[in-house]
Amino acid sequence: MHRACLSNQPTTTSVCYPGGLEFWQAYFTPEEQKILLRASLHKLDMSESIKSRKRRRAYLKSSPENALEPTDLQGIFLPDECYEFQEGHYDGVIRHYREMHLAAWPEAEFESLSSVLKRLYALCPSQNVQTHLLHLGTRGYILPHIDNIHASGTWILGVSLGNERLLHLKPVRGGPPFELILPSGSVYLQRGGVRYTYEHSIEHKPGEDHGQRLSIMIRDLPSTSL
């Protein structure tokens, strides 16, 4: 088992990483993480049912402590039962999650969001992209899978917010697996063969409390042939 060495710089030349994988361990500051998380949860919450939104309002009103400003990032998440988590994805890969494709960020509603987004999208190798929000509950995880080369482009970038998880990569043709710890505020970029020659999964870290995690996934749109 190979476990990655960590760096605040992209690791394009490090022998610790499979080819095509770049990693920024602490790209976003704690304050930037809060802005991204609040904006992402806002979009996901607005897409849920009226019943779910009423449930969240009732929870916040049930105790003065519930409405206090959180002292850490994990405190921004409400309890699992306040969200409409799905138990299984249509392809069986993702468990205990909610998700959405993001058409536009709520920049007018969140101060400083625009500047944080500029830093985020500056990491993208190209700008014709699709943004996807994936919120995993405390029991949430992603089973091993290989990206569909026909349904996506050449690269995918992921921002981790909240609970630390493990990115587990297993070569499909044999060889030692590889693990990368994804702390909150980190960013990884996968492109080329690493997406299609490794099974990917997102797992809980052994022996730790399981908190919620939200990831911002950005990928280039696949080219269309006329």
Automatic annotation (TrEMBL):
Single Gene Ontology MF annotation: 2-oxoglutarate-dependent dioxygenase activity
Domain Alpha-ketoglutarate-dependent dioxygenase AlkB-like: 23-218
GO biological process terms held by the UniProt record: DNA damage response; fatty acid metabolic process
GO cellular component: mitochondrial matrix
Entries under SUPFAM superfamilies matching the protein: Clavaminate synthase-like (SSF51197)
Protein origin, superkingdom: Eukaryota
Name of the protein in its database record: Alpha-ketoglutarate-dependent dioxygenase AlkB-like domain-containing protein
Originating organism: Macrolepiota fuliginosa MF-IS2
